[in-house]
Amino acid sequence: MSEVLVLVDHVDGAVTKPTLELLTIARSIGEPSAVYFGGGEVPSVLAEHGAEKIYQLDDAVYSDYLVAPKAEALAKLVTDASPAAVLVVSGGEGKEIAARVALKTESGMITDAVDVAVDGGTVTTTQSVFAGNFTTRSVVTKGVPVVCVKPNSTSPEAAFGAGTVESVSVDISDAAKGARIVSSSEKASTGRPELTEAAIVVSGGRGTGGDFSEVEAFADSLGAAVGASRAAVDSGWYPHSFQVGQTGKTVSPQLYVANGISGAIQHRAGMQTSKTIVAVNKDEEAPIFELVDFGVVGDLKTVLPQATEGIASR
Ligand code: FAD
Questions:
Q1: Given pLDDT bands bounded at 50, 70 and 90, which one contains residue 195?
Q2: Which of 4, 102, 210, 284 is within CB 3.0–4.6 Å of 146 for a Cys-Cys bond?
Q3: Distance between Cα 278 and ligand 1 center (Å)
Q4: Which residues make beta-bridge pairs with 86?
Q5: Virtual CA dihedral for 63, 65, 71, 75, nearest 10 degrees?
């Protein structure tokens, strides 16, 4: 089976769920090898999700500088290993690394894939475009396919791989050290689960009128993440990092609760694959009701406190 490289996205050794999704996809098209930039013990979760090999690149250059050293090292691995594909999480850093690797290895790159498969020996990708209205299939015609896969494209499945760790050292060029990190600060934690990883997401829209307290209280009663529509974000009521939709995050939780959100196509693009969808909206004609499994017609200021109280009393 051909090797498939998976770039590991992690925070201080805590591997993100989208990386585990990539390992699951990699297993379906070949033999996964994880590429882990970091020191210490390699996270066991990588082998537990099927990584046969783990390339460990432990050097301060990868944390001291922006993405160029990582891209240079990954490109070297791609050249040496000639994998069937390279899978990267489709996010800001992932896309930048992928673009640099594709350029350095003279390969084609595909962004925002929602599925990756092998068809007649060729790696093919599926992309969902125009807010989920069209599905395109694409193949890379030059070099090694470098594919950025959207979070929540699949569910991570555990499967034991050998997890053989291979320490890799790459001489990073001065050119790649052109931009150094001077300081970084951790973003204040909300104490809630990460939006793209949460099993339950409770979102608020324009219908909140700018007061997210009921939405947050309900989310907390369920241990859920909080999301927001673009109308709420554009109004300055909630930070952009919590926006769900075409120009925000894609979520696919077990339960998605939309509160005071009309259900515009661009919002749906980020949540329509949720397993169970519930909406609270005072307009029974709101388009979100076409999509839901359960709908409550009512004012969220009345419905949500009752729901929160109901859950708390259980
Ligand atoms: P509205 O459409 O104004 O709906 C508010 C809803 O709240 C209404 O249905 C109303 O009946 C209900 N309501 C009002 N008061 C209450 C109450 N007290 N209780 C219960 N219900 C109440 N949008 C996104 O969300 N995410 C995106 O990523 C995104 N990307 C976009 C990209 C592009 C290129 C464009 C053009 C648009 C994008 N949009 C996106 C915007 C999108 O088209 C909608 O404008 C937006 O989703 C509307 O947000 P909303 O549902 O909160 O507001």
A1: very high
A2: 102
A3: 15
A4: 5, 146
A5: -90
